[in-house]
Amino acid sequence: MPAIEVTGLEREFEGGIRAVDGVDLEVAAGGIYAFLGPNGAGKTTTVRMLTTLLRPTGGSARVAGHEVIAEAAAVRRSIGVALQEAALDPLMTGRELIALQATLHGLGGGEGRRRGGALLERVGLSGAADRRVGTYSGGMRRRLDLAAALVHEPRVLFLDEPTTGLDPVSRKAIWEEVAALNREGATVFLTTQYLEEADRLADRVGIIARGRIVAEGTPGSLKAEVGHPHLEIGLAEGSIERAEGIGAAFGRLQPARDGKVLVELEGGATQVARVVRALDDAGLAVESLELVEPTLDDVFVAKTGEHIEAGASGEPAAAPAAADGEGSARA
């Protein structure tokens, strides 16, 4: 049985704003599924529906074998959730917060303390367990939130942009923990804006744009669909528009990024010298060249016509009202 099954999932907000527009997806038990897209694409809204924090306005979804509306309580018992904005009381210590979470899940005092201590050690917070959460760094808060989501040993773990805003060291620590949890049998549904995160961690990737899934598959298969490397050309002087006109004679143009001209080259490295000569003949001075193999961003460009970083910002705000009427910041 799949860990997550979604058919025609929709969420419309006031004013006819459709944040999620007919999403279909399936996540195999024991896998890592990365939900990739820019801000405003519908990632967080989808997660809120799958975790019973927001009622769908259309379609259906089952998580851990349970329907998210009719069996919301059973869904919550089966999942762990670490949302983008961690709901952590800054006046509590890390140990107190984990103990509270254990109590909320019905774990007895001794068992709750044992499991809480083991989780704090696992995420590298044993030394800070008795400090107030308000003194924690961003990376420490994310790791504490992850530990809290694991207290009841959930079958499915939802992580909503778990590394956004973190430094590279903290991000790497989260990646390592996610991979370890998956090796131990947890199914992970991960939303992210980071291409490297999806490429490194996920068995399968779903790319969402404007509320719809535009591509889905393994990272390798998606990149193979794009097929050809692209040449990134930085100009020392001259017009980007003129350079694009020249580049178009050698391959398909991609949207310019960071002031660089991007041209897909079917012949790869064999065409680079001819492109440079043509630019030089036109009086356009080249400052930098880089031949880049296909990436998930190339897939996103091919499917949507824009880079993932260029997406609209902000999804419609939604109160975290649970599907059966009971609100909860954490499953």
Q: Strand-and-helix sequence, N→C?
A: EEEHEEHEHHHEHEHEEHEHEEHEH
How much helix is in the residues? 25-40%
Radius of gyration, CA atoms, in whole angstroms: 23 Å
Q: How many helices?
A: 11
Order of neighbouring strands in the sheet with most strands: 6-7-8-3-9-10
How confident overall, as mean pLDDT?
88
Termini separation comes to 21 Å
The low-confidence runs, each spanning 5 or more residues with pLDDT under 50, are 310-329
Number of strands: 14
The largest pleated sheet is described as: 6 strands, mixed
What general form does the structure show? elongated
What structural category arises from helix and sheet content?
Answer: alpha/beta
Binned strand content:
25-35%
